[in-house]
Design brief:
With about 120 residues, the chain is an alpha+beta fold. Helices cover about 25% and strands about 30% of the residues. It has a single domain (about 20-110), classed as 60s Ribosomal Protein L30, Chain: A, CATH 3.30.1330.
């Protein structure tokens, strides 16, 4: 049985709806540092996408939840290294806290392109 009552990702009609991926390591421990936290959240997002046979290049929209909105500039630079143009749409929201002491959570919507 899963530790959580929801799917890491759910696919329907070519779309993947990905639950929030936290800035934790593979053992669920919060990652310290600003850029390492962004990288960890993106790594967890990549793992969740894989559960529905999708990858980062399939992402069309992300929502970032952060505990410090001043992370935006670093997040922008990181986004440019992760996603090719045209980059996915994105929302960036500051929250009071995140589970497990994480500082970043990224959720996504992906779309599997037809391979004809």
């Amino acid at each position: 049985m899963s530790a959580h009552p929801y799917s890491p990702a759910f696919d329907v009609a070519g779309f993947g709806f990905v639950s929030g991926a936290l800035s934790v390591d593979e053992h669920g421990v919060a990652v310290e540092g600003r850029v390492p936290a962004l990288e960890a959240a993106m790594a967890r997002l990549t793992e969740r996408l894989a559960t529905v046979d999708m990858k980062l290049s399939d992402v069309v929209k992300t929502t970032y939840f952060v505990t410090d909105v001043s992370l935006r500039d670093e997040a922008n630079r990181h986004y440019e290294t992760v996603f090719a143009e045209p980059r996915p749409a994105r929302s960036f929201v500051q929250v009071a806290a995140l589970p497990y002491g994480a500082t970043v959570e990224i959720e996504a919507i992906a779309h599997k392109k037809d391979e004809h």
